[in-house]
Amino acid sequence: MKFSGNIIWLIFGGIIISIEYLIASIGMMITIIGIPFGLQTLKLARLALWPFGSVVTDRGNSGGCLSVIMNLLWICTGGICICLTHLVFGLILCITIIGIPFGMQHFKMATLALTPFGKRID
To answer: Residue 61 above 70 pLDDT?
Structure first.
């Protein structure tokens, strides 16, 4: 089920979402200050490419206070917009029974898009 779900995801927009995150990541990494944010966008690109079977886990206190500060900066500079976009797509997809698994993947991406620092994709 995971493999077929990922193939359907890729065909119907997953590859496009992943490429958009990849382009945004390259744009952010142009400056030294943007490198940490670009790395988090790469994390989103990876999840957008193969979401079924991927699990977003919290690393615990690995980042400490810096992780909280970076997440606040992320939210203020566009993270909330990315999160809301995934929530809207998730709600739209959950209208039909067939779309529920795909909507759940958008909800998973929304949680990562809101606070990516200190999280890991397994």
So the answer is: no
Residue 42 and residue 22 in contact, taking contact as beta carbons nearer than 8 Å: yes
For the chain, give the number of residues.
122
Per-residue b or e along 93-111, where b marks 16 or more CB atoms closer than 10 Å to that residue's CB: bbeeeebebbbebbebbbe
Domain span including residue 94: 2-121
Total domain count, the chain: 1
Q: How many other CB atoms are there within 10 angstroms of residue 113's CB atom?
A: 28
Confidence of residue 63 (pLDDT cuts 50, 70, 90): low
3-state secondary structure 75-102: HHHHHHHHHHHHHHHHHHHCCCCCCHHH
Predicted TM-score of the model (pTM): 0.88
With beta carbons less than 8 A apart as the criterion, state whether 15 and 49 touch: yes
Q: Report CA torsion sign: 108, 109, 112, 113.
A: negative
